[in-house]
Amino acid sequence: MKARRNESSKKPRCGGAVAAWLLVPLLVLVVLKTGYLPQLTRHLECAGIGQQQQRLPEIANLQAADGTPKTTGSVAEAPLSAASSDKIAGDGADAIKDVKDGKNVLAMNGEIDGSSRSSDVAAPRSSKLSCDFSSRHTDVCAMEGDVRVHGKSATVHVVAASKESYWPENGTVTFRPFTRKYEESSTMQMVREVTIRTDDTAPPSCTVTHDVPAVVFSTGPDRGNIFHGLADLIIPLYITAREYDGRVQLLATGYQRQWISHYRHLIDALSVYPVIDFDADEAVRCFPSVHVGMKTHGELRIDPALSRKGYTMMDFRDFLLSAYSLKRGWTTPVSRSSGQRPRLVMVLRRHSREITNEAEAIAAATEIGFEVVAAGPELVGDTDRFAEVVNSCDVLVGVHGAGLTNMVFLPHNGTEVQIIPWGELKFIAFQEYGRPLADMGLRYLEYEATAEETTLKDVYAKDHAVFTDPLSIHKQGFDKVWSIFLGQNVTLDIGRFKGVMQQIYESVTIT
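Now predict its structure.
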């Protein structure tokens, strides 16, 4: 912020006094037209005339682009509607970075940042609350008007709610703002409840007033892999917060510093303000609008018909590529006569669903004509680094599991090959890592292991239900499926595998 000049050091220039008095009608006209009352006292003394002449263009510019007057000093700016938020900051992560670079954004854990102003009370206004509890994945409430958030008590106060609002029984509604609602007895028990109150006759006074919307969400339990990181959090946050083009404050209950750091590029692209640790925040923060909970359309999916802005998974992938500064937007066929090789990255698991003959598989793909990148857990776990590796490739290959989620970093028209272990897992595998790919602009191929390619044959007899009736194992519950079918390793039939690799090679190259 630029320091104010010391006007007292200027010499009086009384010669312009007459001109200054002529400007008074213009100032009155600005006040009448915009409703703006300057907060800084202007003394029509000789010493202040030059400064007043310089301030006139600034006063004229205090009218917002959408016609909403702004205020200065300790008073919050007018609330941003969804429509007016479209005019802010531009489009894409690069525009958000520009906004961030231009603001003095401070670390925020109960501190004031660029989105807030100190204030004792919020301006009284009619508020509205609406909630949606119909999804099997998540509950969401949206409110606008005079909304006051106290993180320490996990309470959101909707002051002076209108008659059109949703009115919960006893004036309160409580739920857990995470996206695995259907895991009510397990995952959701580790998520803190947030209470929304509409019955307040004496709501707490604002200690910080923000001029941007807010999203309150939970980071949930730490699953430690990219599938849950994207499916449970990043994509729902994108659906919920992206429309504000960075001008939104995120407040996280169950704040996990490691998770915030791991996905910092995406978090920074969604909001120009640091995430607030909701549980530790003692301030009463007042916002023009608040979302509690995140919208979701299913795992690794965005339905444009359900998105307020019509977002798609292609849009989300463009957002990812921009946030990570990845260079390749699209794959281009490689000429076989050029001497160049298409690149293939093979995700290599450890402890379960390993490819026991991975060296032979890599050699087979190389023999077909690919440049193969072998990616073990250390590389795959470093998302910043691995995103660049995947984006440099045309094909990603791996056994069913979270590592396949990195296909989101492939350039458009890239190809994923999912190796499906034995045990009637095709439906499950396709739902998680096959079905979403068409909406992402990616191609999908699968390799289903036979009973001869599983290490389960070294554990169970050929007449065991594992081989004769795998679905009977499924009926015993997911724990059985997990321990048996998702705990196996795979020994590829190299001849079969080479046939699949040949098919893919021909699809990504030209003569």
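The chain has 17 helices and 18 strands.
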